[in-house]
Amino acid sequence: MKLRLTLLAAAMAALSAPTFAGEALTVYGNAMLTVQNTDDDAAGGDKWEIKSHASRFGVKGDLGISEGLDAFYQFEWEVDPADEAGGDKNFKSRNQGIGLKGDFGQVLVGRWDTPLKLAQGKVDQFNDLEFADMKFIFNGETRARDTLAYTSPKFGGGFVASIATLLQEDVDTDADGDENRDGLFDSLSYSIGWQGKDLYVAVAQDRDHNNATYADGAETTRVVATYKIGPVQLGAMWQNYDNGVSDDVTTPLIDESFDEDGLLLSAAFNIADNHTLKIQHGESDIIMEGGEQTYLGYDYKAAKNVTLFAVTGATLQDADDSDKAYLAGGLKVVF
């Protein structure tokens, strides 16, 4: 029986091999866990806990169609090995989609990070950390369902452009005064970026939505830059969110205008082989009034796919009893 199965598997692999342009199946992921202390003003004290930070696994692959044309797929899930509930609550959908790619660029359909979100590059030194990610004070960190996206090939010495339309799955009845939520291109996200040897710059905008929810006239604009100088990487991001409502005009769902911006500054210092010191400060009223984050971190790369790290800092806002301070030590394993 084992011999038959082995021969069958070998025959299937031989028949399939010519159609595969790249890896037909790759399993990948990472696990990031911390032991952390949270000092919460609202709770009136602190607590110790083990937290998972966007731990994930996925499968992806490329399938050749013809010379210069491939189909691809990716299905990724977030998992929480520290989740006390377990069961089906342990899984959360991340980027999942299929598409075509070639010399023309890439076309994708599915659930995916918007061009504005992807435009951040590596400016967020604490990306994915449950308490320090910049998403807590900036909007636009959106993984949108019903995404149809195009990304250009590299042109002009390092430019790449992306555009995505976010279908709203809605029927326009004109009952709420909106006339654009049922079309193919009524909610958009687009970006253009340039990557050089040491410098990365990008400009991006979301239009007529806020975090993938339709918002007529709303605009989120993001400008990002990172620059490497020897062992140091410096980063900056400016962002503005305008809900599109005039001071003298209201809608049934939004009764006042909102136009706020924010700034994020970050730096990473490779102080020795495999040792990195990180610092980041952000201020924005977009998500919370008086929102402010300041975090300091240290990474030790113990092996190619293994990092030990420590982080401390706080997220503050103007509301009473809302400040939170954190101290965490963790391990990240990539596979």
Cα radius of gyration in angstroms: 22 Å
* Helix proportion range: under 10%
What does the average pLDDT come to?
A: 90
Low-confidence stretches: 1-20
Biggest sheet layout = 16 strands, antiparallel, barrel
Give the topology string: H per helix, E per strand: HEEEEEEHEEEEEEEEEEE
Q: Report the structural category.
A: mainly beta
Describe the fold and architecture.
- This protein is mainly beta and 335 residues long.
- The protein has a 16-stranded antiparallel beta barrel.
- The longest helix is centred in the N-terminal third of the chain and has 15 residues, at 2-16.
- It has helices at residues 2-16, 115-118; strands at residues 26-40, 45-52, 56-66, 69-79, 91-102, 105-113, 143-151, 159-166, 188-195, 199-210, 213-229, 232-242, 259-272, 275-284, 291-303, 306-316, 324-334.
- The model is unreliable at 1-20 (pLDDT under 50).
- The protein has two helices and 17 strands.
SSE inventory with pairings:
Layout: H1 2-16, E1 26-40, E2 45-52, E3 56-66, E4 69-79, E5 91-102, E6 105-113, H2 115-118, E7 143-151, E8 159-166, E9 188-195, E10 199-210, E11 213-229, E12 232-242, E13 259-272, E14 275-284, E15 291-303, E16 306-316, E17 324-334
Antiparallel strand pairs: 1-2, 1-3, 1-17, 3-4, 4-5, 5-6, 6-7, 7-8, 8-9, 9-10, 10-11, 11-12, 12-13, 13-14, 14-15, 15-16, 16-17
